[in-house]
Specification:
elongated, 5 strands, alpha+beta, 170 residues, 2 domains
Length: 170
């Protein structure tokens, strides 16, 4: 396979991979496509020499610019474009607000060691929390002392002293 065929192969692969990036998000295909197009630029210089290599590079850049402009102007009006793009303004949307204030004063158990943050369980629900002051071991009883937004602060609860039953003197 000579340099011209490699140039054409890299050019086509780059365009296909960049196009596939639209449908398979994540960036990997787009990066591979960009690498293939850079390889095509390099192979353009090898296959066609310096003057035509510069021309091939400029044509690739012009093609990319035109493709982006067409994508931005024409594709959003198509059925495919409308399924891929957001059609309404989301400025007024707010995430669901879950009030954590009801947990203030409740007791639960530290599921993980809290030094200072960890997970607690209250009423069967797992919550992220921060220990107030000292390290709290997993399994220790905790009480929620404050809630600010979704920031839960807990304090270790001292276990009541065990009362010893009086033993009968024999």
């Amino acid at each position: 396979m000579d340099a011209t065929h490699i140039f054409i192969l890299l050019l086509l692969a780059g365009m296909l991979l960049m196009g596939a990036e639209i449908f398979v998000p994540g960036g990997v295909l787009g990066v591979l496509g960009a690498v293939a197009l850079m390889g095509a630029v390099f192979m353009g210089f090898v296959a066609f020499g310096p003057q035509r290599g510069v021309l091939a590079s400029l044509l690739i850049l012009i093609f990319l610019a035109v493709s982006i402009i067409v994508w931005m102007q024409w594709i959003p009006r198509t059925r495919l474009g409308q399924t891929l793009t957001l059609s309404t303004d989301t400025a007024g949307y707010k995430s669901a607000v879950i009030s954590m204030k009801a947990y203030v004063g409740k007791e639960g158990e530290a599921v993980t060691p809290m030094g200072p943050s960890g997970i607690i369980r209250i009423d069967g629900k797992r919550l992220d929390a921060v220990a107030e002051g000292k390290w709290i071991d997993a399994g220790a009883r905790v009480r929620v002392v404050s809630v600010t937004g979704n920031h839960v602060t807990v304090r270790a609860v001292q276990a009541p002293p065990e009362t010893k039953e009086p033993t009968e003197a024999a």
